Amino acid sequence: METNDALGEAVLAGFRHNFRQYKALADGALAKLTPAEWLHVPAPGANSVAVIVQHLVGNLRSRFTDFLTTDGEKPTRQREQEFAAPTAVAAVAALQAEWEAAWQILFDLLDTLTANDLLRTVLVRGEAHTVLAAMQRQVAHYASHAGQLVQLAKHRRGEAFASLSIARGQS
Question: How far apart, in Å, are the Cα atoms of 162 and each of 38, 96, 148, 153, 157?
Fold first, then answer.
């Protein structure tokens, strides 16, 4: 049993690390942009940085509030509204605060989970998942959006973009 507990704790530590790394990557990209650039839509039908952040805020709140006891798709979530583009630069400051608060919901949850929780069943949109599978699903989801945020920031900054990882020619 001790090996299973150690493995479970290692898995949870991995999740904590990965979520924090993807948030840090996204934060690095966001910090390179002005509030007006958060609102820029790069092409017709594409999402602005602000829209991606709104979506992640909604997803984080929905998935991780009462994670072990309620469906991860809360009836109060308005997913379609997450994709409505804000138009006022003033909205960005509020969105930044919501971003931090939403991530804190996840980080607080991760601090309470134990190895014994990993095989518990949770629901996401009515579909049963183990906690392990639900967390893996969210890591992948957030990684893809962090990558989008980096790409959008690189596009806006162009040559002035300072790499958030190993820069070209620095390997």
Answer: 18, 21, 16, 10, 9
